[in-house]
Amino acid sequence: MKPAPFTYHRPQSIDEALDLLDRFGDDAKILAGGQSLLPVMALRLAAPEHIVDIGRLPGLDRIDVGLDGTTIGALVRHATAERSDELARHAPLVHQAMPHVGHRAIRTRGTVVGSIAHADPAAEMPAVCLALDAVMHISSVAGGRRVAAADFFSGYLTTALEASELMTAIEFPSWPATAGSSVVELSRRHGDYAMVGLACALDMSGDRITSAALSFFGVAPVPVRVAEAEAVLVGQTPTEDVFAQASEVVSNTLDPTGDVHATADYRKHIAGVLTRKGLAEASSRIGVAA
Ligand code: FAD
User: Fold this and answer.
1) 216 near 127, Cβ under 8 Å?
2) Other CB atoms closer than 10 Å to residue 40's CB: what's the count?
3) What is d(CA 263, CA 260) in angstroms, rounded to the nearest whole number?
4) What span, in angstroms and rounded, lies between the C-alpha atoms of 249 and 230?
5) Dihedral of the CA atoms 58, 158, 81, 42 (nearest 10)?
6) How much is the pLDDT for 109?
7) What is the distance in A from the centroid of ligand 1 to the CA of 99?
8) Whose CA is nearest to atom 17 of ligand 1?
9) What is residue 225's predicted lDDT score, i.e. its pLDDT?
10) Model pTM?
11) Around Cβ 8, how many Cβ atoms within 10 Å?
12) Which residues contact 147 (CB under 8 A, 6 or more apart)?
């Protein structure tokens, strides 16, 4: 199928884009890389009357590393993030997620921020944002606001973004040298959306885990952290036994959805398996092999 007719706008400045979004409200959609929006329009699941193409907006294609953290602008493509040595050093969990996002052609066009704004429950980046307590930078004609990841994802393909708002960047807190992370997932073919996935981060002091984040995707309409399993890890020395305990808590606590791709029980089981695998990978990256 082909998209329904729409009017195409290509603003040259952020202010111009915000004016258009303010003027057209719910009748407008932002176009970034188009890797999710265009298929949805082609299937006529969305039929916006106005498309606001942000591809020419200046200053949004940067990755900035500062003392407080790392900021990824709205026009940074997945492929750029995947090749970024700065991200590998300063936001390794984001970097580790990139090869899992679709296929190379999709990563060449699709943007990191677009993936977060789209909020597919099986996508990697929303779960990474939740694991790292990322902060969304959002602008509208009314001004700017910041929204924490924990308050951003509100339902299936639904976020705290209003129709008149543009997400200009995503900010990740600075990454401690004592931390390790991993992204592990199960999908039928590489590049497919995950049936179940885990974005995982561990921080250590000496031989003890001081903080843990276990953020699952593909299990619910929004990414889910399993605080009960994170609590099992904190204060422990990372060992296979401790990881197995956390894995059991994950399988017993998660209440995943079942669908045509996998039953709820299968997802629970796989989430437990991924917990052990993800924790082992994350800890090995801090030089701690369980
Ligand atoms: P667009 O498609 O342009 O926009 C997506 C949505 O976000 C739209 O509603 C748009 O209005 C909104 N939006 C975009 N930018 C902004 C902004 N700055 N502010 C506010 N709203 C904004 N993704 C994964 O995560 N994992 C996968 O495994 C995966 N597999 C895929 C496989 C296929 C075959 C395809 C076609 C896609 C797949 N994707 C996957 C989806 C894709 O990677 C991302 O969803 C996509 O890159 C989103 O970024 P974009 O720039 O293309 O956004």
Assistant:
1) yes
2) 17
3) 8
4) 9
5) -80
6) 97
7) 15
8) 167
9) 98
10) 0.96
11) 9
12) 135, 136, 138, 160
The reply to whether ligand 1 has any atom less than 6 angstroms from the CB of 137 is no
Q: What per-residue confidence (pLDDT) applies to 188? A: 87
Name which of 150, 127, 148, 153 is nearest 136 in CA terms: 148
- Atom 25 in ligand 1: which residue has the minimum CA distance? 123
Please choose from 9, 106, 147 the residue to mutate so as to test ligand 1's pocket, defined by most ligand atoms within 8 A of CB. Answer: 106
Two tokens at 53? Answer: 């193409």
pLDDT of residue 50: 98
Give me the pLDDT at residue 257, please: 87
Mean pLDDT, 10 residues at a time, the chain of 290 residues: 94 98 97 97 95 97 95 98 96 97 96 98 97 98 98 97 98 95 93 92 95 97 97 97 98 92 94 98 80
Give me the DSSP letters along the chain.
--PPP-EEE--SSHHHHHHHHHHHGGGEEEESS-TTHHHHHHTTS---SEEEE-TT-TT-S-EEE-SSEEEEETT-BHHHHHH-HHHHHH-HHHHHHGGGSS-HHHHHH-BHHHHHHHT-TT-HHHHHHHHTT-EEEEEETTEEEEEEHHHHEEETTEES--TT-EEEEEEEEPPPTTEEEEEEEE-SSTTSPPSEEEEEEEEEETTEEEEEEEEEESSSSS-EE-HHHHHHHTTS---HHHHHHHHHHHHHH------SS--HHHHHHHHHHHHHHHHHHHHHTTT---
CA distance 75 to 106: 14
Distance CA 288, CA 57 (A): 44
To 5 degrees, how large is the angle CA 156–CA 159–CA 163?
120
Q: Is 111 in the pocket of ligand 1 (CB under 6 A)?
A: yes
Nearest to 101, CA basis, from 31, 225, 170, 197: 197
The pair of three-digit structure tokens given for residue 224, joined into one six-digit string: 């889910």
